[in-house]
# Entry
Amino acid sequence: MYTGLLHAHNGFRWLVLLALVVSVVLAISGWLGKREWKKTDNLFNLILVIFTDLQFLVGLVLYAFVSPITKAAFQHFGAAMKNPDLRFYAVEHILLMVVALVLIHIGRSKSKKASSPEKKHRTAAIFYTLSLVLILAGIPWSRALF
# Structure
């Protein structure tokens, strides 16, 4: 079960990154180009939220229930904090990803409620770009092609 979930989580990361990059590009181009907010913008933002939520759920199951890495880290948490690999998976990865997830949800919500197309695009661009940076920092790149 662990291997299957890990492969799903590793593979699904690329869909999340693709949706996030497309959403960032649409938001920045809409903001700088003073473009109207289109159904396409809303659709890609919705796809981003769905993909990110699904990725989070798979990651949460891995983290809380089946990962031998986090199980080992929580057995001796003090020692795990001194080990960079265990600390990354037990604390840093999930913290960065949860903050990115929250920023994506805030960005979608605020952009939907914004009063003008420029504010919608600007809000989405800022929140999604911050999320992208956090996600890129929190990806275990040693497993990226796994």
About this structure: The helical segments are 2-32, 39-66, 68-75, 77-82, 84-113, 117-138. The CA atoms of residues 47 and 105 lie 12 Å apart. The chain has a mean pLDDT of 94.
